[in-house]
């Protein structure tokens, strides 16, 4: 197990370097950021030159990347054009997004697995059909539509939840955006759980367990659900990274100053430091989530062992 | 590990992050309620966007930073929010005998909110700092009219002087400024934020200043959480006449204009001047009439690359006139913009007023929709160069809709569906890059937001030879000489007349087609009243009253 983890960690290095370099190149392909700083006014050549110098924009791309990466290893992510350090932005943005993702993930796990289990156990019943129709609706509507509609209904019209989350993120203000963020994945989790539960409920070991006279609760939770969870956990692990990246839309709608917002600002203002810094952390989280999933397999199914 | 424990452990791992994080946030919710601020004390909660640059007077060239600077600073002159007429604010008098060397006398006893006194040096030091190229101030070019600018910000290489030779401190409350050319309306330009004074602490502890800027204006910053919110409270030592009518302003940064609008409707926001386009159709009823839509000092135009041979012929000028006449401005402003644009009939803005140089209908037939005449002119001029007109725009801004509408209008007039196409450029930076490096081959969108309400500001930087923002690279010696004459003319009315004479040359040369004047929009909650927009389309915060 230990060697497996080390091997996986080593594999992350080329993935990490490759993806950061790609992002770096892509942001640069967007054009010269200095021109945009001056708005509709033509830049003063003397000033533009000084600013290019300050941000190493006169160097060839590979040298800029090397300079950037060498600073990155000392945890110096550079500054944005308005003088804030990217590390301070990371410190504001990631906790906000992690809170949102955590609430969304909890909702996704509890309701996704819950709905899937109910509908898988009672195939063809009204609850099964209900879940199927509901998930179909959720999957087919884009997130931003769900977001604006729920915001208008619950936030503006009925005043049940705050319309936007703002600076102080309270659980109260996060529920609405979390539901929106979780909704699509939740639907997939429910359907995935339903299918595997339905398949496994006819399996021999379930019949054996029932024949042994075990209470139904134990049969379902300890035998049926546990074996059915493997594909679900795979999906959830990959989804954790996707949720953080996909929070962009939800964060904009509900005014949450998280990763999505700063990443968006960074792209609009062509701030290489911000974009690459944020994406770097996202990549690390994504890689870690994937590793966690692979390790969880062993916990769920003792037959899977890592040498 | 028994089977049951193992499953439980798996579930716990999967959700533990969630529980920890939500635990944190729920305990915090009891501490500081987000929606409970405001209310008593007469605080105005207002929409804000994250400033793009550090909050230094000469380094701020966009509206979000500018809004704050105008609250915490009062310059030598100030503009009336309704008429945009300049009048002395911190200046007691600004006089000159030759329109070139100006003597500025300050009203004595003004203070910065850190307690220090505003002196002539506060201005001279601030201007020297703003002009010096190594300080990388985006507004550095505003000091180009002052003598010695060439030395502190040479076009290439390092500066040969650290201070502007044209600025001299006479005594605590007096300084003189010598300009490189006669400029009769120069005093009226000094209300722009680049000309604000700076306290000594700006130079002694720059980092601390940037965290909490200090000014001499009606408000002071009491707290600022970067990229999320700022609290401004009235500055008790303020000497100006425009003292705040409210207990302060809380600016809230929004990720999206739609989110701000939702908050405005839900009663969590009082003043919203970032109304999204999507809300404009319903805003009158949504807000019960608490909405204002007035022209701002912004004009939108389509410019042509006159540096391209095919666009510099006499025939091409006729083609440009034809294109201008093929654009149905009233319909586009109504359908695409919900009346938040006003069809343009000159190259300035209605906020200047007739006395300030705005002249309705100056452009005449050329800016009036006439499909038949348009087609005739374009054909007479030899047709559109290259057979097809492209209008470039940056795709990261809200431009596609109107560019398509303009092209449709031209195509209909020409009776040819491929006469005109929009050409999106990925980002604003790339778009500006193509313009400044003269890479444009067809028409492109341009816009101009005035720096100060003067006709000079709408003509000189945009259309004189080699001017800083002359994107079409238009050059007409007659135009230049009329502008110079107007600048040298001490009589304001006569000067405005000469500027308009110059402007009339644009009708035939047409380096840029006027499209429309942009309006400023603002909506407000039932908690506040007396909300209006200044000519720069920024709310006049100090006049807002809270019920």
Structural notes for this entry:
The complex is a heterodimer of chains A (307) and B (547). Chain A is mostly helical and 307 residues long. Chain A contains 12 helices and no strands. Chain A starts with a helix and ends in a 7-residue tail after the last helix. The model of chain A has no long low-confidence stretch (mean pLDDT 86). Chain B is α+β, with helices and mostly antiparallel strands. Chain B has 2 domains: 44-250 and 525-546, 3-Layer(aba) Sandwich (D-Maltodextrin-Binding Protein, domain 2); 294-520, Dipeptide-binding Protein, domain 3 (Roll), CATH 3.10.105. Helices cover 33% and strands 19% of the residues of chain B. In chain B, the strands form 5 sheets. In chain B, strands 11, 12, 13, 14, 15, 16 and 17 form a 7-stranded mixed sheet that branches. In chain B, strands 1-10-9-8 form a 4-stranded mixed sheet, covered by helices on one side. The chains are: A mainly alpha (307), B alpha+beta (547).
Helix content of chain B: 25-40%
- CATH-wise, what's the superfamily of the largest domain in chain B? Periplasmic binding protein-like II
Rounded to the nearest angstrom, the radius of gyration of chain A is: 24 Å
Helix segment tally of chain A: 12
CATH C-level class of the largest domain in chain A: Mainly Alpha
> Largest sheet of chain B at a glance?
7 strands, mixed
From the 3D coordinates, which CATH architecture of the largest domain in chain A would you assign? Orthogonal Bundle
One letter per element, helices H and strands E, the order of chain A comes to HHHHHHHHHHHH
- The percent range for strand residues of chain B is 15-25%
Distance between the termini of chain A: 6 Å
Helix count from the secondary structure assignment of chain B: 18
Quote the CATH topology of the largest domain in chain A.
MetI-like fold
Instruction: Give the N-terminus to C-terminus distance of chain B in angstroms.
Output: 66 Å
Mean pLDDT of chain B: 89
* Unreliable sequence segments of chain B: 10-40
């Amino acid at each position: 197990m230990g060697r497996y983890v080390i091997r996986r960690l080593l594999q992350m290095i080329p993935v990490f370097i490759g993806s950061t370099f790609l992002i770096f190149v892509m942001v640069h392909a967007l054009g010269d950021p200095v021109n945009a700083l001056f708005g509709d006014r033509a830049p003063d050549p003397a000033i533009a030159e000084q600013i290019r110098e300050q941000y190493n924009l006169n160097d060839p791309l590979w040298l800029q990347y090397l300079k950037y990466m060498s600073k990155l290893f000392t945890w110096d992510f550079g500054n944005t054009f308005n003088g804030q350090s990217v590390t301070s932005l990371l410190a504001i943005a990631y906790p906000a997004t992690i809170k949102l993702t955590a609430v969304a993930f909890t909702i996704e796990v509890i309701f996704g697995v819950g709905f899937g289990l109910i509908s898988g156990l009672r195939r063809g019943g009204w609850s099964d059909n209900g879940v199927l129709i509901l998930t179909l609706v959720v999957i087919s509507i884009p997130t931003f539509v769900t977001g604006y509609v729920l915001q208008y209904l619950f936030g503006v019209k009925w005043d049940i939840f705050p319309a936007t989350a703002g600076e102080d993120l309270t659980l109260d203000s996060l529920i609405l955006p979390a539901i929106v963020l979780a909704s699509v994945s939740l639907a997939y989790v429910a359907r995935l759980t339903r299918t595997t539960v339905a398949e496994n409920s006819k399996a021999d070991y379930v019949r054996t367990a029932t024949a042994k006279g075990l209470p139904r609760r134990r049969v379902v939770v300890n035998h049926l659900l546990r074996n059915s969870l493997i594909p679900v956990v795979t999906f959830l692990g990959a989804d954790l990274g996707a949720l953080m990246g996909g929070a962009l839309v939800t964060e904009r709608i509900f005014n949450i100053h998280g990763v999505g917002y700063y990443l968006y600002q960074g792209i609009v203002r062509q701030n290489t430091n911000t974009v690459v810094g944020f994406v770097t952390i996202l990549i690390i989280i994504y890689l870690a989530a994937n590793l966690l999933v692979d390790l969880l397999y062993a916990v769920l199914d003792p037959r899977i062992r890592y040498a | 590990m028994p089977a049951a424990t193992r499953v439980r452990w798996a579930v716990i791992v999967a959700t533990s992050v969630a529980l920890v994080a939500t635990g944190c946030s729920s305990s915090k919710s009891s501490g500081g309620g987000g929606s409970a601020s405001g209310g008593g004390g007469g605080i105005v909660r207002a929409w804000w966007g994250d400033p793009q640059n550090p909050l230094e007077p000469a380094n701020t060239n966009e509206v979000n930073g500018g809004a704050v600077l105008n609250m915490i600073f009062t310059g030598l002159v100030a503009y009336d929010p309704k008429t945009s007429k300049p009048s002395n604010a911190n200046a007691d008098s600004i006089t000159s005998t030759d329109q070139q060397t100006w003597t500025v006398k300050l009203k004595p006893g003004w203070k910065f909110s850190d307690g220090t006194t505003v002196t002539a040096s506060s201005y001279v030091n601030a201007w020297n700092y703003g002009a010096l190229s190594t300080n990388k101030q985006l507004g550095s070019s505003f000091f180009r009219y002052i003598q010695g600018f060439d030395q502190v910000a040479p076009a290439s290489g390092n500066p040969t002087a650290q201070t502007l030779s044209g600025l001299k401190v006479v005594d605590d409350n007096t300084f003189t400024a010598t300009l490189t050319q006669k400029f009769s309306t120069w005093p009226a330009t000094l209300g722009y934020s680049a000309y604000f004074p700076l306290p000594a602490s700006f130079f002694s502890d720059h980092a601390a200043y940037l965290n909490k800027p200090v000014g001499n204006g009606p408000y002071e910053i009491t707290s600022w959480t970067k990229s999320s919110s700022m609290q401004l409270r009235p500055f008790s030592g303020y000497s100006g006449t425009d003292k705040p009518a409210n207990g302060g302003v809380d600016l809230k940064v929004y990720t999206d204009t739609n989110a701000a609008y939702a908050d405005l409707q839900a009663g969590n926001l009082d003043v919203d001047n970032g109304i999204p386009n999507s809300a404009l159709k319903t805003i009158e009823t949504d807000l019960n009439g608490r909405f204002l839509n007035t022209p701002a000092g912004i004009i939108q135009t389509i410019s042509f690359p006159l540096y391209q041979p095919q666009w510099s012929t006499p025939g091409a000028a006729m083609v440009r006139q034809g294109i201008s006449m093929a654009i149905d401005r009233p319909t586009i402003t109504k359908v695409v913009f919900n009346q938040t644009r006003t069809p343009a009939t000159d190259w300035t803005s209605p906020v200047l007023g007739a006395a300030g140089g705005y002249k309705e209908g100056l452009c005449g037939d050329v800016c009036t929709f006439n499909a038949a005449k348009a087609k005739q002119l374009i054909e007479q001029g030899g047709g559109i160069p290259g057979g097809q007109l492209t209008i470039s725009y940056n795709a990261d801004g809200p431009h596609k809709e109107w560019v398509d509408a303009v092209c449709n209008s031209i195509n209909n007039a020409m009776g040819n569906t491929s006469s005109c196409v929009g050409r999106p450029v990925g980002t604003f930076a790339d778009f500006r890059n193509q313009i400044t490096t003269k890479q444009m081959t067809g028409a492109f969108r341009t816009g101009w937001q005035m720096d100060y309400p003067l006709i000079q500001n709408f003509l000189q930087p945009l259309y004189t030879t080699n001017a800083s923002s002359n994107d079409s690279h238009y050059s007409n010696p007659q135009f230049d000489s009329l502008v110079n004459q107007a600048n040298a003319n001490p009589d304001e009315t006569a000067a405005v007349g000469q500027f308009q004479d110059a402007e009339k040359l644009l009708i035939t040369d047409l380096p840029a087609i006027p499209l429309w004047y942009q309006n400023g929009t603002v909506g407000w909650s039932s908690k506040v009243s007396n909300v209006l927009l200044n000519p720069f389309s920024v709310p006049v915060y100090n006049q807002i009253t809270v019920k």
